[in-house]
Design brief:
The chain is of the alpha+beta class and about 375 residues long. The chain has nine helices and 21 strands. Strands 6-7-8-3-9-10 form a six-stranded mixed sheet, with helices on both faces. Strand 9 and strand 10 form a beta hairpin. Helix 2 runs parallel beside helix 4. It starts with 8 loop residues before the first strand and ends with a strand.
Length: about 375
């Protein structure tokens, strides 16, 4: 059922304003054919406004949206031939599962025999074989989500748009559905734009992530690059947990935390201020009796709080200079260090490969 005619999307200068508020502020974005791209940002960042502009449900004040080479700004939603999965699923309660899935085909006047064949194929794709005759109110949340997906792709759109489709599911089911959606995208091959505010969801599912804030794109890149090389403090803080510490400059372009040399400025600039981004899981618990290689940077402090969270433990440390850093240990490490508790002294370290430095004034 693979779609071999997926379309690229080219967005340039897209602007949407409500009074003095810019929901979208001159957004430029190219989405590759067959790509799974996630729009990620906090509430009010503009991610859903951008998705609805692609779908045709709101009209930008300026800018361009092209599917391949065709301008779509003035094209109504029903002529854009995009599949859409809404946060609420928007299923018809008076129709059966099969009737819901068949609805887009009926609108397009697909013959009954072909319609039935495609519905059965879609049911198999989303693992709902044999449930076509059920009513919507007889389904679980996960099953309803699958029905909404099947209805969105049954007419073979070249672009699939999804607006937080997993937000109503419990954590365990949501995580399972993330993997299923990733596998479904690989099977269908359709260009997919997905909206979420869940960082882990974006990292799990995406080929690339577009981080958006205040109507502007902060960074667009692969999950690995965005996590390991954030361009500014907002991206670093929004994608995963992080502690950001200011760095002091000395000897021209050398950057220090306390009296420890962290690095030289990434661009060898002698101007501007820089910060160190620390990922909690990258910090190592230092045991002076161990043979662990010496880290590039070490921090000494006192445990303020230690919280066991099942697969990991979260520890908040007051450093000697009054700053705070957060550390996340695996459960195995915690079991060996069960003596650690509030008030205890602790030393942690950061290896050279785990150092992330950003410009403080990066926009």
């Amino acid at each position: 059922m693979s779609t071999d005619n997926a379309l690229p999307i080219h967005i340039s200068g897209l602007t949407k304003q409500y009074g003095d508020l810019y929901a979208l502020d001159r957004v430029d974005l190219d989405i590759k054919s067959g790509e799974f791209l996630t729009l990620l940002g906090p509430s009010g960042s503009g991610k859903t406004t951008l998705l609805m502009a692609i779908a045709g449900f709101n009209r930008p004040d300026a800018g361009s949206i092209k599917f391949a080479s065709e301008e779509m700004i003035l094209t109504p939603p029903h002529r854009r031939e995009v599949g859409m999965v809404f946060q609420s699923y928007a299923l018809f309660p008076h129709m059966t599962v099969a009737e819901n899935i068949a609805f887009p085909l009926k609108l397009r006047r697909v013959a009954a025999a072909e319609r039935n064949r495609r519905v059965e194929e879609a049911l198999q794709t989303v693992q709902l074989e044999g449930l076509g005759s059920r009513n919507i109110d007889q389904l679980s949340g996960g099953q309803r989500q699958r029905v909404a997906l099947a209805r969105a792709f049954v007419f073979r759109p070249r672009i699939l748009l999804m607006d937080e489709p997993l937000s109503a599911l419990d954590k365990k089911l949501r995580e399972r559905m993330q993997i299923e959606l990733k596998q479904l995208h690989r099977q269908l091959g359709v260009t997919t734009v997905y909206v979420t505010h869940d960082q882990r969801e974006a990292l799990t599912m995406s080929d690339r992530i577009a981080v958006i804030n205040h109507g502007r794109l902060a960074q667009v890149d692969t999950p690995t690059t965005i996590y390991n090389q954030p361009v500014n403090a907002f991206v670093a803080d929004f994608i995963g947990e992080s502690t950001v510490l200011p760095l002091e400059r000395s000897n021209g372009n050398e950057l220090y935390v306390g009296d420890q040399l962290v690095t030289t400025t990434p661009d060898n600039s002698t101007e501007g201020s820089w910060s160190l981004v620390i990922r909690p899981e990258r910090l190592l618990l230092l045991d002076h009796s161990s043979s662990e290689t010496t880290p590039a940077v070490t921090f000494n402090g006192t445990i303020k709080e230690a919280v066991f969270q099942g697969d990991s433990a979260f520890v908040l440390i007051n450093l000697e200079n009054s700053a705070e850093i957060a550390v996340r240990f695996s459960t195995g490490a915690v079991s060996k260090m069960a003596r650690l508790s509030a008030g205890e002294k602790i030393s942690v370290g950061l290896h050279r490969d785990d150092i992330i430095v950003i410009a403080q004034d990066a926009a």
